[in-house]
Automatic annotation (TrEMBL):
Superkingdom to which the source organism belongs: Bacteria
Positions of the Tryptophan synthase beta chain-like PALP domain: 17-305
Organism whose genome encodes this protein: Mycolicibacterium vanbaalenii (Mycobacterium vanbaalenii)
Enzyme class, broadest EC rank: lyase
Protein name: threonine ammonia-lyase
Keyword DNA-binding: no
Length: 323
């Protein structure tokens, strides 16, 4: 098993610099006085989510890629949406054909956006995306770019940690959404190396809290896809791989779980107070912050994506209007 290092993350930053947005770290003046709040809005990336970082690093790092005149001309990915868009976008920039396998329950806004980037989308039943993707790889000869289970993907996501360390070196807490674990693994590697005083927390929906349970037991656990699909946070329904779980064991200080009502409230708070559109998966870190369980000190949280169905956003915003 190859663990990602801070040098890998720095190399990723060099590869992707011209393709991604160096998102600002926004001071949220309405945060708690004892825990000054800073928001990293990865929903401002070109495809509306952090996934573009890992996708560009993985595709750019392909040995003998089509960008250098040889190697594969096709890439394959499986994703509930944001990784799909990221691979489609990065593949188009590199002149590659993308084949993206997406679950049938994926929000239409994400399927449509993936196709808009020129990808060929293959829809599949819940829990079958890896199997279908393997078949597409066999049919096309394409290179598989997994959503989290790859060192280059993890290193690409870790570039967010580099930026947090540069902008807020005194950070005391970092809150990161957890699904497959690539984002928290990468950021964790960078923060551990550059801000060793910081405590790093993963955040999961209570309805998809397999990582929290697995870390408590000391080994990966499996939750049925039917259980994980209950959460509104559709981007957080995956489970860590052996690779990402091993990283999470090393870099996380704990996992905070949040209720569905807390996630919806966080979407509203980001819209009304931060003027940021967040999908439910992207809002879980704020939901965890609002529980008040983290230690005092400057706190940075990741808004991981903003690709939410307009109808869902309207419904959530209409549930409660702040004073």
């Amino acid at each position: 098993m190859k663990f990602v290092t801070i040098d890998d993350v720095r190399a990723a930053a060099d590869r992707i610099r011209s393709h991604v947005v160096r998102t600002p770290l926004l001071a949220a003046r309405w945060g708690d006085e004892q825990r000054p709040l800073w928001i990293k809005p990865e929903n401002l990336q070109p495809i509306g989510a952090f996934k573009v970082r890992g996708a560009f690093n993985a595709i750019s790092a392909l040995s003998g890629s089509a960008a250098t005149g040889s190697g594969p001309t096709d890439v394959v990915a499986y994703s509930s949406g944001n990784h799909a868009q990221a691979v489609a976008y990065a593949a188009a920039v590199h002149g590659l054909t993308a084949h993206i396998v997406m679950p049938e329950e994926t929000p239409n806004i994400k399927v449509h956006a993936t196709r808009e980037h020129g990808a060929q989308v293959v829809l599949c039943a819940a829990g079958e995306r890896e199997t279908v993707a393997a078949r597409v790889v066999a049919e096309t000869g394409g290179m598989l770019i997994p959503p989290f289970d790859h060192p280059d993907v993890i290193a690409g996501q870790g570039t967010i940690g580099l930026e947090i360390a540069a902008d807020l070196p005194e950070v005391a807490n970092v809150l990161i959404p957890v699904s497959g674990g690539g984002l928290a693994s990468g950021i964790g590697v960078a923060i551990r190396a550059l801000c060793p005083q910081a405590r790093i927390f993963g955040v999961e929906p209570e309805l998809a809290a397999d990582t929290a349970q697995g870390l408590a037991r000391g080994h990966r656990v499996d939750w049925p896809i039917e259980d994980r699909n209950r959460t509104i946070a559709d981007g957080l329904r995956s489970q860590p791989s052996d690779l990402t779980f091993a990283h999470l064991q090393q870099v996380l200080d704990g996992v905070i779980t949040v209720a569905e009502s807390e996630i919806r409230a966080a979407v509203r708070e980001l819209a009304y107070r931060a003027r940021l559109v967040s999908e439910p998966s992207g809002a879980v870190a704020l939901a965890a912050y609002r529980q008040g369980v983290t230690p005092p000190g400057p706190t940075a949280l990741i808004v991981s994506g903003g690709n939410i169905e307009p109808q869902m956003l309207r419904q959530i915003l209409d549930e409660s209007v702040p004073d």
